[in-house]
Amino acid sequence: MIQLTPSAVKAISRFIKYSDPPVSACRVTVTDGGCSGFQYQLRLEAGPAADDQLFEVAGIRMLVDPLSRPMVDGVTVDFVDRMTESGFKFSNPNAKAACGCGKSFSI
Fold first, then answer.
1. Where are the chain's structural domains?
2. How would you list the strands of the sheet with 60-64, edge to edge?
3. What Cα–Cα distance (Å) separates residue 33 from each residue in 30, 41, 81?
4. What angle do CA 50, 56, 60 make, to 5 degrees?
């Protein structure tokens, strides 16, 4: 389903650990928007909704809603922290095009 690089695992684990109020999972969602038509969103959640797919990657509970599920199948999430940029990057083998920032794509 979704792969996390070691850097992404470290970042998400840190965000979950220090979240207030406490959370137990990370949600990956696809919404309309961005330069290429769709954009990724990550957010912390207390738990799954009734129709979520729940799976675990490297000890992190991941949630994906039914509409986002086909668009994130096979996605690799990375976290970069450099002088010129910092944040999550997404690599999607299903995308026909993606913007340079790595946060939006088209199918």
1. 2-96
2. 53-57, 60-64, 25-32, 38-45, 104-106, 97-98
3. 9, 11, 24
4. 105
In CATH terms, the fold of domain 2-96 is Hypothetical Protein Aq_1857; Chain: A; (2.60.300)
pLDDT digits (tens, 9 = 90+) for 10-66: 999 999 999 999 999 999 999 887 676 888 899 999 999 999 999 999 999 999 999
CA–CA separation, 16 and 34 (whole Å) = 26
**Distance (Å, whole) CA 22 – CA 37:** 33
Tokens standing for 67? 């509409």
Phi-psi region of 59 (alpha: psi -120 to 50; beta: other; left: phi over 0): left
CA 26-74-58 angle, 5° bins: 45
Tell whether pTM > 0.90: no
Measured CA to CA, the distance from residue 90 to residue 102 in angstroms comes to: 6
DSSP H or E stretch at residue 12: helix 6-17
